[in-house]
Amino acid sequence: xxxxxxxxxxxxxxxxxxxxxxxxxxxxxxxxxxxxxxxxxxxxxxxxxxxxxxxxxxxxxxxxxxxxxxxxxxxxxxxxxxxxxxxxxxxxxxxxxxxxxxxxxxxxxxxxxxxxxxxxxxxxxxxxxxxxxxxxxxxxxxxxxxxxxxxxxxxxxxxxxxxxxxxxxxxxxxxxxxxxxxxxxxxxxxxxxxxxxxxxxxxxxxxxxxxxxxxxxxxxxxxxxxxxxxxxxxxxxxxxxxxxxxxxxxxxxxxxxxxxxxxxxxxxxxxxxxxxxxxxxxxxxxxxxxxxxxxxxxxxxxxxxxxxxxxxxxxxxxxxxxxxxxxxxxxxxxxxxxxxxxxxxxxxxxxxxxxxxxxxxxxxxxxxxxxxxxxxxxxxxxxxxxxxxxxxxxxxxxxxxxxxxxxxxxxxxxxxxxxxxxxxxxxxxxxxxxxxxxxxxxxxxxxxxxxxxxxxxxxxxxxxxxxxxxxxxxxxxxxxxxxxxxxxxxxxxxxxxxxxxxxxxxxxxxxxxxxxxxxxxxxxxxxxxxxxxxxxxxxxxxxxxxxxxxxxxxxxxxxxxxxxxxxxxxxxxxxxxxxxxxxxxxxxxxxxxxxxxxxxxxxxxxxxxxxxxxxxxxxxxxxxxxxxxxxxxxxxxxxxxxxxxxxxxxxxxxxxxxxxxxxxxxxxxxxxxxxxxxxxxxxxxxxxxxxxxxxxxxxxxxxxxxxxxxxxxxxxxxxxxxxxxxxxxxxxxxxxxxxxxxxxxxxxxxxxxxxxxxxxxxxxxxxxxxxxxxxxxxxxxxxxxxxxxxxxxxxxxxxxxxxxxxxxxxxxxxxxxxxxxxxxxxxxxxxxxxxxxxxxxxxxxxxxxxxxxxxxxxxxxxxxxxxxxxxxxxxxxxxxxxxxxxxxxxxxxxxxxxxxxxxxxxxxxxxxxxxxxxxxxxxxxxxxxxxxxxxxxxxxxxxxxxxxxxxxxxx
Length: 955
Fold this sequence. Notes:
- By secondary structure, this protein is mainly α.
- It is 58% helix and 3% strand.
- The chain has a five-stranded parallel β-sheet with strand order 2-5-6-1-7, with helices on both faces.
- Strand 8 and strand 9 form a beta hairpin.
- Helix 7 (163-173) packs parallel to helix 9, helix 29 runs antiparallel to helix 30 (625-631) and helix 39 packs across helix 40 (814-826).
- The chain is flat and about 120 Å long.
């Protein structure tokens, strides 16, 4: 029996019932057997019972012989047995004679008997005693505390612990009362921030004290439990060389201890003290015997193998087993490979597979540490070399460094890329090197479209379709292979020229990409910008010209160039390219919904990006947020999908949903490129809310990332949002490298409308915000060129840009503004449309036009109101009392108009002139608004109006 711990009776079943029965006049009939593992509170409860009996003046003994003494004279003068209670603890340790007397005392039934013992299912004596008590009295089983019972147990002992610390205590102790009390005592005696460490140290000391009382055979049995193999009597007899009876007794003793859980596992804090006590040599000897017994019987399990290897067992068969287990281990694959290396496997032979598992698990650092040295291994097979490049390139791409990833594939070349040609093409397309992507695809037809490669091939084909042929619908001034792609290739690296005609299995000839002609090379790098008066004016559509096709695309992979197929259905190259981009989005959405799990990681291979991310960002870039939402259908709630969903909601005008989704995202869980997307949403929401403080906070949180990532196709939207925020905060210089890189990437790709239109719209807004017509002209010209070629999105954006410039000049034509606003809203840009309408209302020369346009802006914004604050800030210490929920229905139509102008910073006289009312009337409107919404001051009025959704139109 160990030391008595503090009493928490409410956690011990039947404690109060036992006390009531002992206090009653019929206490002689009380008979209880309290059964439980060591440390569950048996001795604590028996100690409380003894104290209760002493308080009532009732003698007690732990010796059955004393309780069974012959009758004598009682205190009342009558003959009979003197009243005494028999309280016996640890009855499982009694000798045969004492045990027989205990059974006789139970059968006598003349005095209270309370017995405590540990469960021993294989002990016939204890089973007989338990049956006897069950017939005459009651058997009480004490169990370990559950995770939710730790805090109430602590309160009963007069202690308080946070919920997280209570859960940690349960994990460390398994809920055993003795360990919990030791942990609670240590936690309450130290600072809150040091509670975890104090608990770990206290539980380790408690476990060591328990182990000190164990004999060598029990320690050996605990070694088996520490390895997680369970406690089977037959196996234990074989491993420890025991007879069956001794093995059964040893299993009972181990399970009755405080250190083995119901699952026959040793508590984690007890492993290190156990190993210290038995010594490494004995520990590993028992572990090896267990390993050989399991392997010979074919019963070795993955978890046991992991623990054996991690405990230091080195064995060739164990290493082979773990390598095989890693192939089916999923999220545990990294741990399996590490354990295999610890068991004696060659780390260099495992490096590539290990790195792939680490990359899929999100551990990019480990993946690079393992894969990069393999790139310089001359003995590495071509398949492993290509896999190592794929892993490194995937990590770099997800970290927002697509150009560095492209350099790896450029170094690998088309002859060594093998079946990873599609992954290579994807990386180069994302980095802006379309010619390099096609060169790496020249041997694609040699590789069948298997399940392992089909997803990557689909992504590569979709990117090609969305990009199209440079110069057809976009800026035709850039040759197909620009200096950006050429500068990336190492000097001295030569590629075999692709064949002049490639024939895939279906027999369709596809031309190879051609180098720029001399005329092309002499072509100026930019068209002469148009006059500002002619900016964004529709031009005559150009004739449908030839387009180069990708090389190496098999028939099953839609080998024909998109413009070639589209020519049969569309009247212009721009419409043909848009049709190809729409088809690409459809294919990506289909892949996102039908691919193998985990879909976002390419099934069984680590890919640089997921089809769902490309599909969503492509649809958003094309101005189709509803279709982007289709790509996100399903129940998956991983962080990347939450961020993409927030983008869809924000650009679709539903800022509240975007804000809600972003509150579920832990930025630290995201790869750097996805983190850039997340910061783009947070900054965009802050900009739309009109809250300058929130925008500054969001910008400060995003700024460190600007130096960590580079531009690629999937980063264009967040770069655009951050660009506008930087201009508003007068800190746009921080983003110069990303903006310049994005512009160069699009120029190298030939300004593909599906990707470039949205970026050029951001650029036009940036130029307007900076009041810089010179900065506006190149982007306006590119939209104008695409619009003239027949691209509907570019036409809508060009028209909106031209209208906006005219509004800023004070030239407001109501019909023209309403048409531009409608086209912007049709692209999902409701916030931009509302902002254009509100600025046109402010610039309008007549009251009727201003009122109509302001109503139009309010109607658009009413469909989805922004949140109060997209950045979580600390609440004030003593918030003032305010009326319950405020809605803009509190204000009249005229008051809402006044509110918009007040938030713009206009004086009462200027507002009156705009609305054709007197300054005094405006003052009355403002005073009435303050009374209606309960504002105590003008500054509070402005804050509350912003919270109601006013003012965001004019930001």
